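Minutes, project check-in

Agenda point 3 was the complex the collaborators sent over. CS summarized: two entities, 473 residues total, and the question is how they sit relative to each other. Sequences were read into the notes so everyone works from the same version.
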Amino acid sequence: MDFSFLNQPAFSGGGVYLDWVISGVKWTLLVSVLGWIIAFSMGSVLGVLRTSPVWWLRAPATVYVEIFRNIPLLVQMFIWYFVVPEIVPKFMGDWLKTKMPMPEFWNAVLCLGFYTASRVAEQVRSGIQSIPRGQTNAALAMGLTLPQAYRHVLLPMAYRIIIPPMTTEFLTIFKNSSVALTIGVLELTAQARQISEYTFRTFEIFIIATIIYALITLTVTFSMRWLEHRARVPGYIGGASGK
Amino acid sequence: MFSDFDFEVIVSALPFLWEGMMFSLGLTLLAMLGGIFLGTLLALMRLSPFKILSYPAGAYVNLIRSIPLILVIFWFYFLIPIAVKNISGNPYAAGIGPFYSALIAFTMFEAAYYCEIIRAGIQSVPRGQVHAAYALGLNYRQATTLVILPQAFRNMIPILLTTSIILFQDTSLVYVVGLTDFMGAASKIARRDGRLVELYLFAALIYFIICFTASYFVKRLQARYNVGRN
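CS then shared the predicted structure for the full assembly.
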């Protein structure tokens, strides 16, 4: 194994190949984190709606989840990038096609965010539903309105319960960010492939990419375990039993 | 907007898309069977009291689960030809073809995910069952195959099927190495005819119908299994 190619001047861009690796990590993290912000906020709203007693709040959230869960991410990626600009009204389509800054990047972020939101919604829903009904009833009996019961009783519990599955979801969006390479985002996997094509050091660069992915996964897993420990409610065994 | 939506292009592409769909379904089915078989072995290794078995299995599962599927596909497309040359001793040996390379990559990747499900399934079988099996004079192999695995798999069937639906969706990623699965076929026609909107929306619709129907049946199956159990 010979890692000296990392220090060789890169084919383009002026730097060395190590710069390509660093830039790949940067885009992977940017796409995952921005996508996660969308996924977390939208998924929380959708998850709450899915547990609502009002059918016309529940139905649209269910439809959303079913659609986004049942279409492969790659297909969604292509739809955001190739199809949406064609089927929105013309002035918007023109903006998307010609004026939008970094279209690959933002389409990837939106696609991953909307896709992961459907998965986050299911976790939030199962978290809320795993809380005994008595808690809701007690909250309502104390005179809280239903939104207040969610805000002060259900959600604080639910978010603690779902820390482990939410960690998995974040790691999923982090790994799924590699699908963005299909529309031309030069994230870590894309850079690894590109470097292997220019330097023929396939084995070495794939090892580096693998180690970076594994290290970030490990870091996230351990920090979330720490958070889970900190957020534990005394006297409550917790853990997401799902259902 | 949809005014120039051309159904003709989809109709004429149907035979090609059908071939792609057979590729996707074949890959899914074989990778599922291979993945469950390998996953069971990995799960038994991980639960083994011998560290020489449990450590490598644990390391493999955790490593595969922490890297993206696309990178795994690239890895195997890089490694399989080298392995073929080394095993056959012929430096000019041809590869094993794109379908089998994809099959190996998906089997190895999915095995790690199936392993964790199967491990949980095995652990959910009450310990008393193991003791009872040994007390009856069964050896490890008999206790595992006759007592533990049948009960474990019965509990796991819904989640194994759900994972397989996701596997079916994931097979679309063979696009990155240029294979003609369903999505690959759709994208090749789309580019050839310049009809991205029609083909990609059609592909999305077909995937949706298949996955939605499949998960509906899994849900029904799960509801039936839950009857009479606590």
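Noted in discussion: The interface with chain A takes residues 1-2, 63, 65-71, 74-75, 78, 169-170, 172-173, 175-176, 183, 187, 190, 196-197, 200-201, 203-204, 207-208, 211-212, 215 of chain B (CB under 8 Å).
Follow-up: revisit at the next meeting once the mutant set is ready.
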